[in-house]
Q: What sequence folds into this?
């Protein structure tokens, strides 16, 4: 806060992030860290400030597909069982690849379900508009649907489970929804909305629980639509880093 960095903890070990950062930057972070732990100074190591021309996105892997009755909302406790990396020449495509590596790839077309908590509604407007711009249909629960329509964004109303049938659960089961954007209503809500997230897991539909992730998601899908993400070797990425230093 206020440009002050607070260190929560410092452990003399390698985290799961270290090999991913090393791959993105083309630097052996473990070697450098080991030398520092053995007494070397950073000023003695002749390190250069690199210009990285590509993007790397780290994504956590969760075991929720094995536990369909567990609400996938995250808290401070460790729930991930691994991490994956997406790399590309744009942030959007790197994000798309990272999601694909978790075995729950993002759809490139179809219908997105949007059901947003009251405090998140103002922030979801640009995201919803982008989904329409890239060709997605939008289904939204009553409050979200009215909010989107009042701001000129076309969407179709869909019933919550307690409101009758056919409802969200039916649409998910029938394969009518390809992506779920659901920010939780919290304990103040009269009804539990965890069934939406649990159903998405059960039927292997990608789900998003924050507006920030939804914004990254629509950016990733748009990037994939433009460029299908050709395979590029790690060596090629590292060669591009060297070329970027020459240009500098």
A:
């Amino acid at each position: 806060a206020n440009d002050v960095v607070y260190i929560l903890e410092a452990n003399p070990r390698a985290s799961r992030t270290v090999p991913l950062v090393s791959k993105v930057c083309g630097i052996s972070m473990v070697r450098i860290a080991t030398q520092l732990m053995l007494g070397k100074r950073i000023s003695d190591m002749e390190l250069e400030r690199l210009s990285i021309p590509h993007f790397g996105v780290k994504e956590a892997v969760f075991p929720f597909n094995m536990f369909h009755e567990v609400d996938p909302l995250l808290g401070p406790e460790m729930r991930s069982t691994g991490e994956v990396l997406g790399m590309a020449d744009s942030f959007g495509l790197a994000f798309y690849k990272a999601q694909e590596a978790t075995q729950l790839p993002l759809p490139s077309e179809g219908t997105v379900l949007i059901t947003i908590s009251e405090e998140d509604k103002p922030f979801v407007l640009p995201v919803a508009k982008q989904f329409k711009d890239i060709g997605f249909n939008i289904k939204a629960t009553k409050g979200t649907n009215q909010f989107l329509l009042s701001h000129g964004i076309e969407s179709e109303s869909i019933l919550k489970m307690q409101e009758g049938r056919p409802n969200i659960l039916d649409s998910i089961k029938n394969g009518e929804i390809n992506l779920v954007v659901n920010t939780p209503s919290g304990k103040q809500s009269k009804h539990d909305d965890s069934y939406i997230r649990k159903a998405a897991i059960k039927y292997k539909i990608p789900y998003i629980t924050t507006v920030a992730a939804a914004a990254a998601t629509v950016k990733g899908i748009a990037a994939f639509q433009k460029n299908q993400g050709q395979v590029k070797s790690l060596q090629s990425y590292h060669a591009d880093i060297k070329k970027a230093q020459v240009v500098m």
User: Anything to note?
Assistant: The mean pLDDT is 88.
